[in-house]
Amino acid sequence: MKGVLLVNLGSPDSPEPKDVKPYLDEFLMDKYVIDVPFLLRAFLVRGIILRKRPEESAHAYKKIWTDEGSPLIVLSERMHKKVKPLVDVPVALAMRYGSMTIEKGLQELHEQGVTDVMLLPLYPQYAMASTLTIEVLAEKIRKKSFPNMKLTNFPAFYNKPGFIRVLSESIKKHLEGFNYDQLVFSYHGIPERHIRKTDVTKSHCKIDGSCCATASEAHAFCYRHQCYETTRLVAEYLQLPKESYTLTFQSRLAGDKWLEPYTDVEIDNMPAKGIKKIAVVTPAFVTDCLETLEEIAMRANEDFKENGGEEFLAIPCLNDDDEWCEVVADWIKDWVKN
Ligand SMILES: C=CC1=C(C)c2cc3[nH]c(cc4nc(cc5[nH]c(cc1n2)c(C)c5CCC(=O)O)C(CCC(=O)O)=C4C)c(C)c3C=C
Ligand SMILES: [Fe+2]
Hints:
46% of the residues lie in helices and 13% in strands. The chain is α/β, with parallel strands linked by helices. It has two domains: 2-156 and 321-337, Rossmann fold, CATH 3.40.50.1400; 161-314, 3-Layer(aba) Sandwich (Rossmann fold), CATH 3.40.50. Strands 2-1-3-4 form a four-stranded parallel sheet, with helices on both faces. Bound molecules: the ligand C=CC1=C(C)c2cc3[nH]c(cc4nc(cc5[nH]c(cc1n2)c(C)c5CCC(=O)O)C(CCC(=O)O)=C4C)c(C)c3C=C and fe (ii) ion (FE2). Residues 9, 11, 24, 27, 33, 53, 57, 70, 72, 123, 127, 129-130, 188, 190-191, 251, 253, 284-285, 289-291 line the site of ligand L6N33NVT. Keywords: Cytoplasm, Heme biosynthesis, Iron, Lyase, Metal-binding, Porphyrin biosynthesis.
């Protein structure tokens, strides 16, 4: 029997440093996130980053935490609950990090008699720090605990018509009556090195945009290309004039060179250029989380206004939007049919 495992990133069990620290340790010790040899990674993460970051992150998590828990978990659960009755096969939900493990998700499907699983990472654009790490871990667990199970990876959906339509319609709905100077498409950043590592041709990605104009098999695994494609397709759907929108990358960690332009720098500089009213959409996330609710809707908003900005609109993620849940259900139905 077929079944589906939806996988999102995960959150700590609580916004207290005692729970944030092990969560960050699991996340940042992942070799697909901080992709350096183990000893160097352990030194960077445990010797440097985890000294201060758990307190800072806990403070940020406390600002967004709800009575029901982490927004990312609660909203993913709501979406899961809505998708389940729309399809005829079992659907489970798991997280890459934290206590809702992929192992538990596969076990739940196994107990329902599922032998053929489609893995659906809830990330529109492919990245080794998001999609690949889920695929690799799920395969490792399958081999060890469920050797007779078949796993199929659902490809990144950055350009799928259903995703582009519901994302565009959601943006349109939230922009109604808001007279903005600039619409910012802010995507989670990654180190440039990750783009080169996932280039299957090993020579295509130049990280300057020129490569995106040439058809290549590298695009199927290029996070930067896929972010630009999502933006281009939404702009086309909404018929946005070229000068009315911009693409940026947020949430970088110190150290390496991350994808540019940086969201915080761009937004802070906008008021001085006469851009006083902005809307920000975050299409690398289908679920609202720390990076959208705290970093964008709170911090970027405050910084924009401190720099002379007047109006700031943070557009929510798709979360458990009915039409989005129907799109996901349709993808599942198509896979079940074939
Ligand atoms: C779009 C998907 C994501 C990619 C790609 C990604 C890469 C990436 N992230 C970090 C470091 C951190 N990210 C953190 C939070 C976080 N990241 C994503 C998604 C992607 N990350 C989400 C959905 C969230 C929010 C989780 C939540 O509970 O709401 C954090 C933790 C919070 C903090 O301390 O800022 C870290 C750390 C790296 C290093 C990276 C690529 C190399
Ligand atoms: Fe992240």
